[in-house]
Amino acid sequence: MKHTQRVSVRSKEPPVIEIDPSCLAAYVRYKKGKVAKTKEITQRRSPVTCTVDFDANGEVIGIELIGVKEFTLEKILELLPEGARNFDFRRARFVPAASVPASA
């Protein structure tokens, strides 16, 4: 199910995709930083919960997807909101969720 809501993500680096299959979760991290605000943008009738983390300047730190049943790049991209897919995901790194510190 594709999102109709847009988010504006600015990053010069490819994202890091943190995977936690035990929680059926993926976190697409665009940059490191302290989360100041989290906003849920889950689509109606979607089995996947989608939340966006913002820093104090209102820039996107990352997007969390909960309820992911298929951990492929194609499926994760499909679940991301508009504006969050406009990156070269060919250079994205997939890592276990516990291996990336949350803030710099």
Please tell me about this protein's structure:
The chain has 104 residues and is mainly beta. The chain has one domain (16-98). Helices cover 7% and strands 30% of the residues. The chain contains 1 helix and 6 strands; from the N terminus they run E-E-E-E-E-H-E. The chain has one helix at 73-79, and strands at 16-20, 25-29, 37-40, 49-54, 60-66, 93-96. Strands 3-4-5-2-1-6 form a 6-stranded mixed β-sheet, with no helix packed on it. A hairpin with a 4-residue loop joins strand 1 and strand 2 (25-29). The longest helix has 7 residues, at 73-79. The radius of gyration is 12 Å and the shape is globular. The N and C termini lie far apart (33 Å). The relative contact order is 0.32. The model has no long low-confidence stretch (mean pLDDT 88).
Keywords:
104 residues, mainly beta
Number of strands: 6
Mean pLDDT: 88
Strand content: 25-35%
Distance between the termini: 33 Å
> How would a textbook summarize the main sheet?
6 strands, mixed
As a percent range, the share of helical residues equals: under 10%
Q: Supply the number of helical segments.
A: 1
Radius of gyration: 12 Å
Quick rundown:
The chain has 104 residues and is mostly beta strands. It is 7% helix and 30% strand.
